[in-house]
Write a structure and sequence with these properties.
Number of domains: 2
Structural class: mainly alpha
Distance between the termini: 10 Å
Order of helices and strands: HHHHHHHHHHEEEEHHHHHHHHHHHHH
Number of helices: 23
Helix content: 40-55%
Radius of gyration: 25 Å
Largest sheet: 2 strands, antiparallel
Number of strands: 4
Strand order of the largest sheet: 1-2
Shape: globular
Length: 438
Protein backbone atom coordinates (compact mmCIF):
# COMPACT_ATOMS: atom_id res chain seq x y z
CA UNK A 1 0.00 0.00 0.00
CA UNK A 2 3.09 2.21 0.18
CA UNK A 3 6.76 2.09 -0.74
CA UNK A 4 8.30 0.33 2.28
CA UNK A 5 6.91 0.53 5.79
CA UNK A 6 9.23 1.42 8.65
CA UNK A 7 9.28 -0.55 11.88
CA UNK A 8 7.56 2.38 13.63
CA UNK A 9 4.78 2.47 11.05
CA UNK A 10 4.22 -1.27 11.32
CA UNK A 11 4.26 -1.03 15.10
CA UNK A 12 1.56 1.63 15.08
CA UNK A 13 -0.73 -0.53 12.93
CA UNK A 14 -0.11 -3.89 14.61
CA UNK A 15 -2.64 -3.48 17.48
CA UNK A 16 -5.46 -2.74 15.00
CA UNK A 17 -7.68 -5.24 13.23
CA UNK A 18 -7.53 -5.43 9.44
CA UNK A 19 -10.49 -3.13 8.64
CA UNK A 20 -9.05 -0.48 10.96
CA UNK A 21 -5.62 -0.84 9.34
CA UNK A 22 -7.12 -0.39 5.87
CA UNK A 23 -9.11 2.64 7.00
CA UNK A 24 -5.96 4.15 8.46
CA UNK A 25 -4.01 3.59 5.26
CA UNK A 26 -6.83 5.11 3.17
CA UNK A 27 -7.02 8.20 5.38
CA UNK A 28 -4.47 10.51 3.78
CA UNK A 29 -5.53 13.62 5.71
CA UNK A 30 -2.30 13.63 7.82
CA UNK A 31 -0.25 14.27 4.67
CA UNK A 32 1.09 17.81 4.30
CA UNK A 33 -0.39 20.21 1.77
CA UNK A 34 0.99 19.88 -1.73
CA UNK A 35 3.43 22.80 -2.06
CA UNK A 36 5.44 22.59 -5.30
CA UNK A 37 9.06 23.69 -5.76
CA UNK A 38 9.41 27.46 -5.80
CA UNK A 39 11.29 27.29 -9.09
CA UNK A 40 8.12 26.28 -10.97
CA UNK A 41 6.82 29.85 -10.88
CA UNK A 42 10.21 31.54 -11.21
CA UNK A 43 10.57 33.10 -14.65
CA UNK A 44 14.35 33.14 -14.23
CA UNK A 45 14.58 29.33 -14.00
CA UNK A 46 14.50 27.27 -17.19
CA UNK A 47 12.16 24.32 -17.67
CA UNK A 48 15.00 21.80 -17.65
CA UNK A 49 15.94 22.81 -14.10
CA UNK A 50 12.29 23.00 -13.14
CA UNK A 51 11.82 19.38 -14.18
CA UNK A 52 14.84 18.31 -12.13
CA UNK A 53 13.38 20.14 -9.13
CA UNK A 54 9.91 18.67 -9.73
CA UNK A 55 11.26 15.12 -10.03
CA UNK A 56 13.28 15.41 -6.84
CA UNK A 57 10.35 17.06 -5.05
CA UNK A 58 7.97 14.23 -5.95
CA UNK A 59 10.43 11.47 -5.02
CA UNK A 60 11.02 13.12 -1.67
CA UNK A 61 7.29 13.53 -1.10
CA UNK A 62 6.77 9.83 -1.89
CA UNK A 63 9.47 8.95 0.63
CA UNK A 64 8.33 11.19 3.49
CA UNK A 65 4.53 11.63 3.66
CA UNK A 66 3.01 9.76 6.62
CA UNK A 67 0.33 8.11 4.46
CA UNK A 68 2.16 7.14 1.23
CA UNK A 69 -0.87 5.53 -0.45
CA UNK A 70 -1.77 8.98 -1.78
CA UNK A 71 1.54 9.29 -3.62
CA UNK A 72 1.60 5.66 -4.73
CA UNK A 73 -1.83 6.09 -6.26
CA UNK A 74 -0.79 9.38 -7.89
CA UNK A 75 2.08 7.43 -9.42
CA UNK A 76 -0.36 4.81 -10.70
CA UNK A 77 -2.53 7.48 -12.36
CA UNK A 78 0.62 9.08 -13.81
CA UNK A 79 1.24 5.83 -15.71
CA UNK A 80 -2.43 5.31 -16.53
CA UNK A 81 -3.15 8.82 -17.88
CA UNK A 82 0.33 9.10 -19.30
CA UNK A 83 1.75 12.34 -20.71
CA UNK A 84 5.34 13.29 -21.58
CA UNK A 85 7.00 16.57 -20.68
CA UNK A 86 9.07 16.29 -23.87
CA UNK A 87 5.86 16.97 -25.81
CA UNK A 88 3.90 19.04 -23.30
CA UNK A 89 6.89 21.32 -22.93
CA UNK A 90 6.33 22.99 -19.56
CA UNK A 91 6.99 21.80 -16.02
CA UNK A 92 4.06 23.75 -14.59
CA UNK A 93 1.61 21.81 -16.77
CA UNK A 94 3.10 18.50 -15.64
CA UNK A 95 2.81 19.60 -12.03
CA UNK A 96 -0.84 20.61 -12.49
CA UNK A 97 -1.62 17.10 -13.75
CA UNK A 98 0.42 15.55 -10.95
CA UNK A 99 -1.49 17.56 -8.38
CA UNK A 100 -4.82 16.39 -9.83
CA UNK A 101 -3.77 12.76 -9.42
CA UNK A 102 -2.87 13.51 -5.81
CA UNK A 103 -6.01 15.44 -4.86
CA UNK A 104 -8.62 13.52 -6.89
CA UNK A 105 -7.00 10.10 -7.17
CA UNK A 106 -8.95 8.60 -4.27
CA UNK A 107 -12.38 9.97 -5.18
CA UNK A 108 -14.85 9.56 -8.02
CA UNK A 109 -13.33 7.94 -11.10
CA UNK A 110 -15.68 9.88 -13.37
CA UNK A 111 -14.66 13.17 -11.77
CA UNK A 112 -10.99 12.26 -12.16
CA UNK A 113 -11.44 11.43 -15.86
CA UNK A 114 -13.45 14.59 -16.50
CA UNK A 115 -10.85 16.83 -14.90
CA UNK A 116 -7.92 15.02 -16.49
CA UNK A 117 -9.48 15.45 -19.92
CA UNK A 118 -9.44 19.26 -19.83
CA UNK A 119 -5.97 19.75 -18.42
CA UNK A 120 -3.35 21.40 -20.57
CA UNK A 121 -0.94 18.45 -20.33
CA UNK A 122 -3.44 15.94 -21.73
CA UNK A 123 -4.92 18.31 -24.31
CA UNK A 124 -1.47 18.92 -25.77
CA UNK A 125 -0.10 15.39 -25.41
CA UNK A 126 -2.98 13.68 -27.22
CA UNK A 127 -3.48 16.47 -29.75
CA UNK A 128 -6.84 17.80 -28.67
CA UNK A 129 -5.46 21.34 -28.58
CA UNK A 130 -5.96 21.79 -32.37
CA UNK A 131 -9.14 19.66 -32.52
CA UNK A 132 -11.83 21.65 -34.34
CA UNK A 133 -14.89 21.24 -36.52
CA UNK A 134 -14.01 20.06 -40.00
CA UNK A 135 -10.64 18.64 -38.93
CA UNK A 136 -11.29 16.37 -35.93
CA UNK A 137 -8.28 14.72 -34.31
CA UNK A 138 -8.99 11.19 -33.07
CA UNK A 139 -6.02 10.68 -30.74
CA UNK A 140 -7.60 11.65 -27.44
CA UNK A 141 -11.00 10.16 -28.29
CA UNK A 142 -9.43 6.78 -29.06
CA UNK A 143 -7.18 6.61 -26.00
CA UNK A 144 -9.99 7.83 -23.75
CA UNK A 145 -11.79 4.58 -24.50
CA UNK A 146 -8.97 2.13 -25.19
CA UNK A 147 -6.43 3.05 -22.49
CA UNK A 148 -8.24 5.20 -19.96
CA UNK A 149 -11.70 3.69 -19.44
CA UNK A 150 -12.83 0.61 -21.42
CA UNK A 151 -9.90 -1.33 -22.83
CA UNK A 152 -9.40 -2.78 -26.30
CA UNK A 153 -12.27 -4.01 -28.49
CA UNK A 154 -14.94 -2.29 -26.40
CA UNK A 155 -15.84 0.41 -28.93
CA UNK A 156 -16.09 0.91 -32.69
CA UNK A 157 -14.23 3.15 -35.09
CA UNK A 158 -17.51 5.04 -35.55
CA UNK A 159 -17.50 5.72 -31.80
CA UNK A 160 -13.98 7.13 -32.09
CA UNK A 161 -15.00 9.43 -34.94
CA UNK A 162 -18.04 10.73 -33.08
CA UNK A 163 -16.14 11.18 -29.82
CA UNK A 164 -13.44 13.13 -31.66
CA UNK A 165 -16.12 15.41 -33.11
CA UNK A 166 -17.64 15.80 -29.65
CA UNK A 167 -14.30 17.00 -28.31
CA UNK A 168 -13.83 19.67 -30.98
CA UNK A 169 -13.40 23.14 -29.50
CA UNK A 170 -12.00 21.84 -26.21
CA UNK A 171 -8.59 23.36 -26.76
CA UNK A 172 -5.72 25.23 -25.12
CA UNK A 173 -5.54 29.00 -24.83
CA UNK A 174 -1.94 29.64 -25.79
CA UNK A 175 -2.40 33.36 -25.29
CA UNK A 176 -2.87 32.97 -21.56
CA UNK A 177 0.08 32.83 -19.19
CA UNK A 178 0.24 30.19 -17.94
CA UNK A 179 -1.57 28.27 -20.68
CA UNK A 180 -5.09 27.19 -19.76
CA UNK A 181 -7.92 25.04 -21.07
CA UNK A 182 -10.56 26.94 -23.01
CA UNK A 183 -13.71 25.88 -24.82
CA UNK A 184 -14.18 27.66 -28.16
CA UNK A 185 -17.85 27.36 -29.24
CA UNK A 186 -17.05 28.47 -32.80
CA UNK A 187 -14.70 25.47 -33.19
CA UNK A 188 -17.18 22.91 -31.85
CA UNK A 189 -19.06 20.49 -34.10
CA UNK A 190 -22.72 20.89 -33.13
CA UNK A 191 -24.11 18.43 -35.69
CA UNK A 192 -25.73 15.16 -34.53
CA UNK A 193 -23.24 12.35 -33.95
CA UNK A 194 -23.92 8.62 -33.34
CA UNK A 195 -22.14 7.36 -30.23
CA UNK A 196 -22.73 3.96 -28.63
CA UNK A 197 -26.22 3.60 -30.04
CA UNK A 198 -27.47 7.15 -29.50
CA UNK A 199 -27.39 10.00 -31.98
CA UNK A 200 -27.40 13.58 -30.70
CA UNK A 201 -25.22 16.64 -30.46
CA UNK A 202 -22.69 15.05 -28.14
CA UNK A 203 -20.24 17.27 -26.26
CA UNK A 204 -16.88 16.00 -25.01
CA UNK A 205 -17.64 15.71 -21.28
CA UNK A 206 -20.94 13.96 -22.13
CA UNK A 207 -18.93 11.22 -23.82
CA UNK A 208 -17.21 10.46 -20.50
CA UNK A 209 -20.51 10.51 -18.62
CA UNK A 210 -22.05 8.14 -21.15
CA UNK A 211 -19.18 5.67 -20.81
CA UNK A 212 -19.01 5.69 -17.02
CA UNK A 213 -22.69 5.88 -16.02
CA UNK A 214 -24.57 3.71 -18.54
CA UNK A 215 -24.46 -0.08 -18.76
CA UNK A 216 -22.81 -2.15 -20.03
CA UNK A 217 -19.95 0.33 -20.48
CA UNK A 218 -19.95 1.31 -16.80
CA UNK A 219 -19.31 -2.28 -15.68
CA UNK A 220 -16.76 -2.82 -18.45
CA UNK A 221 -14.86 0.26 -17.30
CA UNK A 222 -15.13 -0.80 -13.66
CA UNK A 223 -13.63 -4.22 -14.44
CA UNK A 224 -10.89 -2.69 -16.58
CA UNK A 225 -9.78 -0.30 -13.81
CA UNK A 226 -10.16 -2.92 -11.07
CA UNK A 227 -7.88 -5.33 -12.93
CA UNK A 228 -5.29 -2.67 -13.59
CA UNK A 229 -5.23 -1.48 -9.99
CA UNK A 230 -5.01 -5.05 -8.68
CA UNK A 231 -2.10 -5.72 -11.03
CA UNK A 232 -0.36 -2.58 -9.78
CA UNK A 233 -0.82 -3.29 -6.07
CA UNK A 234 -0.87 -7.11 -5.85
CA UNK A 235 -0.09 -9.35 -8.84
CA UNK A 236 -1.04 -9.80 -12.52
CA UNK A 237 -3.90 -11.90 -13.86
CA UNK A 238 -6.35 -11.99 -10.93
CA UNK A 239 -9.01 -14.68 -11.12
CA UNK A 240 -12.39 -13.99 -12.70
CA UNK A 241 -14.10 -14.55 -9.36
CA UNK A 242 -11.91 -11.96 -7.66
CA UNK A 243 -12.46 -9.51 -10.50
CA UNK A 244 -16.21 -10.05 -10.19
CA UNK A 245 -16.03 -9.09 -6.52
CA UNK A 246 -13.93 -6.01 -7.18
CA UNK A 247 -16.07 -4.90 -10.12
CA UNK A 248 -19.30 -5.25 -8.16
CA UNK A 249 -17.94 -3.19 -5.28
CA UNK A 250 -16.70 -0.50 -7.68
CA UNK A 251 -20.00 -0.28 -9.55
CA UNK A 252 -22.07 -0.29 -6.36
CA UNK A 253 -20.01 2.63 -5.03
CA UNK A 254 -20.71 4.67 -8.17
CA UNK A 255 -17.08 4.16 -9.23
CA UNK A 256 -15.56 5.48 -6.02
CA UNK A 257 -11.85 4.68 -6.08
CA UNK A 258 -11.49 4.51 -2.29
CA UNK A 259 -14.30 1.95 -2.12
CA UNK A 260 -12.55 -0.19 -4.73
CA UNK A 261 -9.24 0.02 -2.87
CA UNK A 262 -10.90 -0.86 0.43
CA UNK A 263 -12.38 -3.98 -1.16
CA UNK A 264 -9.00 -4.86 -2.64
CA UNK A 265 -7.11 -4.38 0.61
CA UNK A 266 -9.63 -6.46 2.58
CA UNK A 267 -9.60 -9.35 0.10
CA UNK A 268 -7.89 -12.52 1.41
CA UNK A 269 -6.04 -12.76 -1.92
CA UNK A 270 -4.26 -9.50 -1.11
CA UNK A 271 -2.41 -11.32 1.69
CA UNK A 272 -1.58 -14.46 -0.26
CA UNK A 273 1.91 -15.58 -1.20
CA UNK A 274 1.14 -14.54 -4.76
CA UNK A 275 0.62 -10.96 -3.60
CA UNK A 276 3.52 -10.98 -1.13
CA UNK A 277 5.92 -12.14 -3.85
CA UNK A 278 4.09 -11.04 -6.96
CA UNK A 279 5.73 -7.83 -8.13
CA UNK A 280 9.17 -6.68 -9.19
CA UNK A 281 9.62 -3.11 -8.05
CA UNK A 282 9.83 -0.60 -10.86
CA UNK A 283 12.68 1.90 -10.64
CA UNK A 284 10.63 4.65 -8.99
CA UNK A 285 9.29 2.41 -6.23
CA UNK A 286 12.73 0.91 -5.66
CA UNK A 287 14.38 4.36 -5.48
CA UNK A 288 11.80 5.56 -2.97
CA UNK A 289 12.26 2.42 -0.85
CA UNK A 290 16.03 3.01 -0.83
CA UNK A 291 15.59 6.65 0.15
CA UNK A 292 13.28 5.67 2.99
CA UNK A 293 15.63 2.94 4.24
CA UNK A 294 18.76 5.09 4.24
CA UNK A 295 17.17 8.37 5.29
CA UNK A 296 18.59 10.11 2.24
CA UNK A 297 16.72 12.59 0.02
CA UNK A 298 16.48 12.84 -3.74
CA UNK A 299 18.05 16.28 -3.55
CA UNK A 300 21.09 14.73 -1.84
CA UNK A 301 21.39 11.69 -4.11
CA UNK A 302 20.15 12.90 -7.55
CA UNK A 303 18.42 9.70 -8.68
CA UNK A 304 17.17 11.47 -11.81
CA UNK A 305 20.58 10.95 -13.44
CA UNK A 306 20.07 7.17 -13.36
CA UNK A 307 16.33 6.92 -13.97
CA UNK A 308 16.38 7.06 -17.76
CA UNK A 309 18.81 4.12 -17.94
CA UNK A 310 16.71 2.29 -15.37
CA UNK A 311 13.80 2.65 -17.79
CA UNK A 312 11.47 4.83 -15.73
CA UNK A 313 11.87 8.57 -15.79
CA UNK A 314 9.16 10.52 -13.98
CA UNK A 315 7.06 12.77 -16.24
CA UNK A 316 8.41 10.92 -19.29
CA UNK A 317 6.56 7.60 -19.76
CA UNK A 318 7.64 5.73 -22.90
CA UNK A 319 4.27 6.28 -24.63
CA UNK A 320 0.58 6.87 -23.96
CA UNK A 321 0.24 3.33 -22.60
CA UNK A 322 2.59 4.13 -19.72
CA UNK A 323 5.07 1.70 -18.22
CA UNK A 324 4.93 -2.07 -18.25
CA UNK A 325 5.55 -4.02 -15.06
CA UNK A 326 7.15 -7.05 -13.47
CA UNK A 327 9.53 -8.97 -15.75
CA UNK A 328 9.85 -5.86 -17.93
CA UNK A 329 12.28 -4.50 -15.33
CA UNK A 330 14.50 -7.59 -15.31
CA UNK A 331 17.11 -6.76 -17.93
CA UNK A 332 20.82 -6.17 -17.69
CA UNK A 333 20.78 -2.49 -18.72
CA UNK A 334 18.14 -1.50 -16.18
CA UNK A 335 19.74 -3.50 -13.38
CA UNK A 336 23.17 -2.10 -14.16
CA UNK A 337 21.71 1.41 -13.82
CA UNK A 338 20.18 0.44 -10.47
CA UNK A 339 23.60 -0.74 -9.35
CA UNK A 340 25.04 2.65 -10.29
CA UNK A 341 22.48 4.49 -8.21
CA UNK A 342 22.84 1.99 -5.36
CA UNK A 343 26.55 2.76 -5.20
CA UNK A 344 25.85 6.49 -5.27
CA UNK A 345 23.33 6.39 -2.44
CA UNK A 346 25.61 4.02 -0.51
CA UNK A 347 28.37 6.63 -0.30
CA UNK A 348 25.93 9.35 0.74
CA UNK A 349 24.40 7.12 3.41
CA UNK A 350 27.82 5.97 4.62
CA UNK A 351 28.91 9.57 5.13
CA UNK A 352 25.79 10.01 7.27
CA UNK A 353 26.69 6.97 9.39
CA UNK A 354 24.30 4.43 7.88
CA UNK A 355 24.98 0.85 9.10
CA UNK A 356 28.09 1.93 10.96
CA UNK A 357 26.92 -0.14 13.95
CA UNK A 358 28.26 -3.23 12.23
CA UNK A 359 31.82 -1.85 12.34
CA UNK A 360 31.89 -1.42 16.13
CA UNK A 361 34.59 -3.46 17.85
CA UNK A 362 35.48 -4.36 21.41
CA UNK A 363 38.73 -3.44 23.14
CA UNK A 364 40.04 -6.78 21.90
CA UNK A 365 39.28 -5.73 18.31
CA UNK A 366 36.43 -8.23 18.00
CA UNK A 367 33.28 -7.20 16.17
CA UNK A 368 30.37 -6.57 18.53
CA UNK A 369 27.96 -7.92 15.93
CA UNK A 370 28.44 -11.30 14.33
CA UNK A 371 28.25 -11.52 10.54
CA UNK A 372 24.73 -12.95 10.84
CA UNK A 373 23.60 -10.12 13.12
CA UNK A 374 25.10 -7.51 10.81
CA UNK A 375 23.39 -8.98 7.75
CA UNK A 376 20.07 -9.22 9.58
CA UNK A 377 20.35 -5.57 10.59
CA UNK A 378 21.00 -4.52 6.99
CA UNK A 379 18.09 -6.57 5.67
CA UNK A 380 15.78 -5.21 8.35
CA UNK A 381 16.74 -1.63 7.50
CA UNK A 382 15.54 -2.34 3.97
CA UNK A 383 12.28 -3.86 5.16
CA UNK A 384 13.28 -7.50 4.96
CA UNK A 385 13.21 -8.97 8.46
CA UNK A 386 14.56 -12.55 8.60
CA UNK A 387 12.60 -13.09 11.81
CA UNK A 388 9.34 -12.82 9.86
CA UNK A 389 10.54 -14.91 6.89
CA UNK A 390 10.45 -11.87 4.57
CA UNK A 391 13.85 -12.70 3.13
CA UNK A 392 14.96 -15.88 1.39
CA UNK A 393 17.34 -18.09 3.40
CA UNK A 394 19.56 -18.36 0.33
CA UNK A 395 20.05 -14.59 0.04
CA UNK A 396 20.75 -14.33 3.75
CA UNK A 397 23.31 -17.14 3.66
CA UNK A 398 25.12 -15.63 0.67
CA UNK A 399 25.44 -12.28 2.45
CA UNK A 400 26.58 -13.89 5.71
CA UNK A 401 29.21 -16.00 3.97
CA UNK A 402 30.44 -12.99 2.03
CA UNK A 403 30.67 -10.76 5.12
CA UNK A 404 32.45 -13.49 7.09
CA UNK A 405 35.05 -13.76 4.34
CA UNK A 406 35.43 -9.97 4.16
CA UNK A 407 36.04 -9.70 7.86
CA UNK A 408 38.57 -12.46 7.77
CA UNK A 409 40.59 -10.76 5.05
CA UNK A 410 40.71 -7.30 6.52
CA UNK A 411 44.03 -7.81 8.23
CA UNK A 412 44.67 -5.78 11.34
CA UNK A 413 41.24 -4.88 12.66
CA UNK A 414 41.78 -1.13 12.91
CA UNK A 415 38.69 0.96 12.30
CA UNK A 416 38.67 3.65 9.62
CA UNK A 417 35.84 5.54 7.96
CA UNK A 418 36.43 3.46 4.85
CA UNK A 419 35.08 0.29 6.39
CA UNK A 420 34.38 -1.58 3.19
CA UNK A 421 32.19 -4.18 4.86
CA UNK A 422 29.58 -1.59 5.84
CA UNK A 423 29.84 0.15 2.48
CA UNK A 424 29.54 -2.96 0.33
CA UNK A 425 26.86 -4.59 2.47
CA UNK A 426 24.63 -1.54 1.94
CA UNK A 427 25.02 -1.76 -1.83
CA UNK A 428 24.53 -5.52 -1.95
CA UNK A 429 21.43 -5.44 0.23
CA UNK A 430 19.75 -2.89 -2.03
CA UNK A 431 20.37 -5.16 -5.01
CA UNK A 432 19.19 -8.45 -3.48
CA UNK A 433 16.21 -10.11 -5.19
CA UNK A 434 14.24 -9.62 -1.98
CA UNK A 435 14.60 -5.81 -1.95
CA UNK A 436 13.90 -5.68 -5.68
CA UNK A 437 10.51 -7.25 -4.98
CA UNK A 438 7.62 -5.09 -3.78
Amino acid sequence: MGFEATAAEIGALTPLDLPAIVDTVLDVSPNPVDTPPASLTDANVGDWQKMVDLTQWWLDRMATVPRPLQEKLAFFWHGHFATQVSKVGRAIDMYDQNRLFRTAGLGSFETLVQQMSVQVAMLIYLDNDPNEKGAPNENFARELMELFTLGVNQYTQADVVSAARAWTGHNVDYGAEPRIYRFYPNRHDTDPKPFMGETKNWDGPEIITRILTVEPQRSIAARFIAKKLWTFFAYPNPSSALLDTLTTAFVNSNLDISALLRTMFLAPEFYSNAARQGLVRGPVEWIVACLRATGMTARETNPQWWMEDMGQQLFEPPNVAGWKNNAYWLNSTALWARAGFARNITWKAHEAGFLMEITTRTAQNQYVMSAAQAVDLALTRFGRDPATNSVSPWVRSVLINWLTTQRGSEGAPTYSWRDWAAINLTTMTMLTPDVLLA
